[in-house]
């Protein structure tokens, strides 16, 4: 049975029930990277957010097609090639590869299709020809422009107008434009710039038409969800929508639009001039734990809210991961509990409320820890509305199943802890030896020595927990 899913739709500005066009096959398009530089923290947020959305949909629907493009034609790439002397092909190949590696490191599954602009040129030209034939675009001086007033619904998605675009000084004023808000579908290329033959001469596509043509090629004129960062809502998504609805009258294009909020660093907009610009690689270099800890940090904030990255926040997220793995390491094997899973998953079905699902996972963790150490799991159980104490391992197994939808806590608990320790220079064998020495000291009633060993480990970030089954350790 598929539960009711609700998502905030940017077009209607409210939460809507999600009803796929084909209940057997859900389709999603998310704008991918422009491959001219390493992914920064802000680029990673939509990838993580929509990865969770896709994992959630896959849990309930028989088939989900997730398309995320690669923008490998863009003036930023051309500029980079000119500045650096590196070829365009080398820049885009190297950057695409780095993007794949970085997104894998934060636990994002690859999309089902990853179309590239360079491989969709024929589709873009055909798309533009349809717009011209329909009276929605015109050629002028080697350019083709979208005729904004020809689409009276322009602005309905973002609530903005072509005048906003002009006020923001984000449009080029050009004599060949009929209206200042008209945007480029095709533009001429000089001998040094990449170009393709077209009915309007040798040139290259504008950014917006690339996404319209790639989503059409992969998903057709109607699909379920279009996602991206909030900064893409206007003009990029407004323009995509205008192009697609005009080229395919009667279609609906995306039925629902989801946008994630922006990411800041230490409370400020990330920028190279402020010196707070961080690539994902800067974070991943901190240790084998960093990819998952960063993912945890992202999911602790609701996807539509602004997210503030700080080192303290990352350390806290890492500690959450440590606590999760410590619980999983000591829980015995057991079957999961359907009611626990439904309870913890429910917030995700209500506009992808990852912070609340994480809070419920913490309750499952508390319950498991209490059950396995012979304590009383009342608090977590009360919030769950349950009175029966689960068998050891049941809450942990349920935790793991829900965590899989978030893409966290899926590693082997021992390797996680070893990864963290190697980073700190302490081997697990050394810890086990210290625990044994402490136990021997306690048996000999040398409590001062036992306390000294505990304190020494604590100094190195290892916390000991004495339970019914003996002493276990975790990272502080
Ligand atoms: Zn796009």
TrEMBL record:
The protein's required cofactors: Zn(2+)
Positions of short motif 'KMSKS' region: 269-273
Binding annotation for ATP: 272
Cofactor binding summary note: Binds 1 zinc ion per subunit.
Chain ranges for the short sequence motif 'HIGH' region as given in the UniProt record: 33-43
Enzyme Commission numbers on file: 6.1.1.16
Keywords, comma-separated and alphabetical: Aminoacyl-tRNA synthetase, ATP-binding, Cytoplasm, Ligase, Metal-binding, Nucleotide-binding, Protein biosynthesis, Zinc
Protein's cellular compartments: Cytoplasm
HAMAP family to which the protein is assigned, alphabetical: Cys_tRNA_synth
PANTHER family: CYSTEINE--TRNA LIGASE, CYTOPLASMIC, CYSTEINYL-TRNA SYNTHETASE
Protein name: Cysteine--tRNA ligase
Origin species: Humitalea rosea
């Amino acid at each position: 049975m598929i539960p009711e899913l609700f998502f905030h739709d940017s077009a209607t500005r409210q939460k809507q029930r999600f009803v796929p066009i084909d209940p057997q096959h859900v389709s999603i398009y998310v704008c991918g990277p422009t491959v001219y530089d390493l992914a920064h923290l802000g680029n990673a947020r939509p990838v993580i957010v929509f990865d969770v959305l896709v994992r959630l949909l896959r849990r309930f629907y028989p088939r989900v097609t997730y398309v995320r493009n690669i923008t490998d034609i863009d003036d930023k790439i051309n500029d980079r090639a000119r500045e650096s002397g590196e070829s365009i092909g080398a820049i885009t190949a190297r950057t695409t590869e780095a993007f794949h590696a970085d997104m894998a490191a934060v636990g994002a599954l690859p999309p089902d299709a990853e179309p590239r602009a360079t491989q969709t040129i024929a589709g873009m030209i055909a798309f533009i020809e349809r717009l011209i034939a329909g009276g929605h675009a015109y050629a002028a001086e080697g350019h083709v422009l979208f005729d904004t007033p020809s689409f009276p619904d322009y602005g309905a998605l973002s609530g903005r107008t072509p005048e906003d675009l002009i006020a923001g000084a984000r449009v080029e004023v050009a004599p060949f434009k009929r209206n200042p808000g008209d945007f480029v579908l095709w533009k001429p290329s000089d001998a040094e710039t990449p170009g393709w033959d077209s009915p309007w001469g040798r040139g290259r596509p504008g950014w917006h038409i690339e996404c319209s043509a790639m989503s059409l090629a992969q998903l057709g004129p109607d699909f379920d969800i279009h996602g991206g960062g909030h900064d893409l809502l206007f003009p990029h998504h407004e323009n995509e929508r205008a192009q697609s609805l005009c080229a395919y009258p009667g279609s609906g294009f995306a039925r629902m639009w989801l946008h994630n909020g922006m990411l800041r660093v230490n409370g400020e907009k990330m920028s190279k001039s402020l010196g707070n610009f961080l690539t994902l690689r800067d974070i991943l270099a901190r240790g084998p734990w960093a990819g998952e800890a960063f993912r945890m940090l992202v999911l602790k904030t609701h996807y539509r809210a602004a997210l503030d990255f700080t080192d303290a926040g990352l350390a806290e997220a890492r500690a959450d991961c440590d606590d999760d793995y410590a619980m999983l390491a000591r829980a015995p094997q057991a079957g999961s509990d359907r009611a626990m899973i439904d309870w913890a998953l429910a917030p995700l079905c209500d506009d992808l409320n990852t912070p609340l699902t994480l809070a419920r996972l913490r309750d499952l963790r508390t319950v498991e820890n209490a059950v396995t150490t012979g304590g009383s799991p009342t608090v977590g159980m009360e919030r769950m509305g349950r009175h029966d104490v689960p068998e050891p391992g049941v809450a942990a197994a349920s935790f793991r199943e829900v965590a899989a939808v978030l893409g966290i806590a899926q590693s082997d608990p021992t390797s996680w802890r070893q990864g963290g320790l190697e980073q700190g220079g302490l081997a697990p064998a050394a810890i086990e030896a210290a625990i044994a020495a402490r136990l021997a000291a306690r048996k000999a009633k040398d409590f001062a020595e036992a306390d000294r060993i505990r304190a020494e480990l604590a100094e190195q970030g290892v916390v000991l927990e004495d339970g019914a089954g003996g002493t276990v350790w975790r990272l502080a």
